[in-house]
Amino acid sequence: MRINIENFRNDLLNWYDEYARVLPWRSEPLPYYVWVSEIMLQQTRVEAVKPYFARFIKRLPTLKDLAEVDDDELRKLWEGLGYYNRVRNMKKCAIECMDKYNGFLPSAYEELIELPGIGSYTAGAIASIAYKEVVPAVDGNVLRVFSRLLASYDDIGKESTKKKFHTIIQEYVSKDRPDAFNQAVMEIGAMVCVPNSAPRCNICPIVSYCQAYETGKEHVLPIKEKKLKRRIEKRTIVVMVHDGKVVLRKRPQTGLLADLYEFINLEGYHTKKQLKELFNDSYTIKSIEKLPTSKHIFSHVEWHMHGYLIEVENVNDELLASITDVDERYAIPTAFKAYKDMLKHYIK
């Protein structure tokens, strides 16, 4: 079945005009807003991103503000979104834009893709949505829609497949409304042509063009090779409290959760007796309380955590943070959320 691209575009855009969600970065598609929202949306649902986006833009309304913000404050603004390397690259990008582009994101796809942290998809989104350049924005939603549309058995996890679809979709992008076209395909992928085996074909405005639906393969496609099994790491988290404040330590500048703050984090599982022996020379321990276990999944590793709350009478040269500091100043990864909540309950 050969797709009539003009009819396909019209049906897609008519649906988008009627059913598109009202989102703050769509209502005012400034290049900076589009960029910030797209980076936030890469691993997070739209509804969850809204308050983060509002808070980020209120504090850092321009590229200049982002380029100049303190690193700890920037990480705190990002806390809960994960993948902190993305926000570090955003600051690098903002600094480069201040130096090269007078404080603005460039309008051309080819210039955008050369900036730190901006890949093909993000460059396409900014160029098409903010600047109306006729270029595709190919994210996971778009790959899923077009894999089913064209009944493609190419593995969408491969970079070669993404490049192939970028070239294919270029022909489909509306010359008059590239911004609406790209957002419409993303919206179809998010709301209708959803992942796994449950596409909502009965309400899809482009189902008549879909070769996967025509051949009964909509539940099979797209093809994506399963990821390797994650490595499991055993950790012991020590929430050490002194005088109503908690000991925080800063992680190394490279590697997992780089430069973020954490509670005392030990490799392997430790017993109360082992912890007393470990800390006895440096601290006067008042009490040790076993906390519930917790688990956090990263992309390639799982932390299986045992926790303890240790109250001490003295600290040495340690960073002590109040609950207000924990809430407002220091970025603590979501991996430690369970122990952060337990700390708050204990202090209160």
TrEMBL record:
<keyword id="KW-0227">DNA damage</keyword>
<dbReference type="InterPro" id="IPR005760">
    <property type="entry name" value="A/G_AdeGlyc_MutY"/>
</dbReference>
<keyword id="KW-0411">Iron-sulfur</keyword>
<keyword id="KW-0004">4Fe-4S</keyword>
<dbReference type="InterPro" id="IPR003265">
    <property type="entry name" value="HhH-GPD_domain"/>
</dbReference>
<keyword id="KW-0479">Metal-binding</keyword>
<dbReference type="Pfam" id="PF00633">
    <property type="entry name" value="HHH"/>
</dbReference>
<keyword id="KW-0408">Iron</keyword>
<dbReference type="InterPro" id="IPR015797">
    <property type="entry name" value="NUDIX_hydrolase-like_dom_sf"/>
</dbReference>
<dbReference type="GO" id="GO:0016798">
    <property type="term" value="F:hydrolase activity, acting on glycosyl bonds"/>
</dbReference>
<keyword id="KW-0234">DNA repair</keyword>
<dbReference type="InterPro" id="IPR029119">
    <property type="entry name" value="MutY_C"/>
</dbReference>
<keyword id="KW-0378">Hydrolase</keyword>
<comment type="similarity">
    <text>Belongs to the Nth/MutY family.</text>
</comment>
<dbReference type="Pfam" id="PF14815">
    <property type="entry name" value="NUDIX_4"/>
</dbReference>
<comment type="function">
    <text>Adenine glycosylase active on G-A mispairs.</text>
</comment>
<dbReference type="Pfam" id="PF00730">
    <property type="entry name" value="HhH-GPD"/>
</dbReference>
<dbReference type="InterPro" id="IPR004036">
    <property type="entry name" value="Endonuclease-III-like_CS2"/>
</dbReference>
<dbReference type="InterPro" id="IPR023170">
    <property type="entry name" value="HhH_base_excis_C"/>
</dbReference>
<dbReference type="InterPro" id="IPR044298">
    <property type="entry name" value="MIG/MutY"/>
</dbReference>
<feature type="domain" description="Longin">
    <location>
        <begin position="246"/>
        <end position="348"/>
    </location>
</feature>
<protein>
    <recommendedName>
        <fullName>Adenine DNA glycosylase</fullName>
        <ecNumber>3.2.2.31</ecNumber>
    </recommendedName>
</protein>
<dbReference type="InterPro" id="IPR010908">
    <property type="entry name" value="Longin_dom"/>
</dbReference>
<dbReference type="InterPro" id="IPR000445">
    <property type="entry name" value="HhH_motif"/>
</dbReference>
<keyword id="KW-0472">Membrane</keyword>
<dbReference type="InterPro" id="IPR011257">
    <property type="entry name" value="DNA_glycosylase"/>
</dbReference>
<keyword id="KW-0326">Glycosidase</keyword>
